[in-house]
Amino acid sequence: MSKGKVWKYGDDVNTDVIYAGKYTYQQMRPEEMASHALEDLDPEFAKDVRPGDVIVAGKNFGCGSSREQAAACLRAAGVQAVVAKSFARIYFRNAINLGLPVLQSEEASKNLKSGDDVEIDFGGGKIISGEKVFKFPPLPDSVIGILEAGGLLEWTKKKLERAK
Fold it and tell me: What tens digit of pLDDT does each residue of 70-113 get?
């Protein structure tokens, strides 16, 4: 299980406020990308987020353009997972491909607040905050494998190495 603090946001958090479009075509190392995470939505996020923290949001997280940097910058910032009522399809897939867990839980989205301490039991499909337990659909083994490898590219490399 992994522990962290909650950063709470609302509905329709789009990729442009997760990672501003003005940086899309600039080559940056992951730590540089992390320094711009959510800067247009929450200017304090990038300097105050800690490894293991969790973003909790409402519906349609990651809507907007399909830029992969919107998932990559959060992973680089140390975010252990994004929990939301729902996700934009392309963001959901980009996040998995880049090794960022995205978890759907309407109850967690509704009840968790900024600053809450949380633990995530990925295998058991549980988000725990104090005495409260919120469930999410357990991730398929294939998705867990991709996340544990650090993303689809690393998972594929390992699979090819084993095949040799």
Answer: 999 999 999 999 999 999 999 999 999 999 999 999 999 999 99
Reduced to 3 states, what is the DSSP secondary structure of residue 89? helix
φ, ψ for residue 112, nearest 5 deg: -75, 150
Other Cβ atoms within 10 Å of 17 Cβ, number:
17
pLDDT band at 123 (very low <50, low <70, confident <90, very high): confident
* Element of type H or E holding 160: helix 152-163
- pLDDT of 45 > 90? The answer is yes
- pLDDT value at residue 8: 98
85-95 burial, b at 16+ Cβ within 10 Å, e below that, comes to bbbbebbbbbb
How far, in Å, CA of 16 to CA of 63, rounded?
9
What are the structural domains, with CATH classification, of the chain? 2-163 (3.20.19.10)
**118: CB partners within 8 A, 6+ apart:** 3, 4, 5, 6, 54, 112, 127, 128, 129
Contact between residue 139 and residue 101 where contact means Cβ atoms under 8 Å apart:
yes
CA max distance for the chain: 48
> In 3D, which of 22, 20, 28, 65 has the Cα closest to residue 45?
20
Query: What is the SS3 assignment for 22?
Result: helix
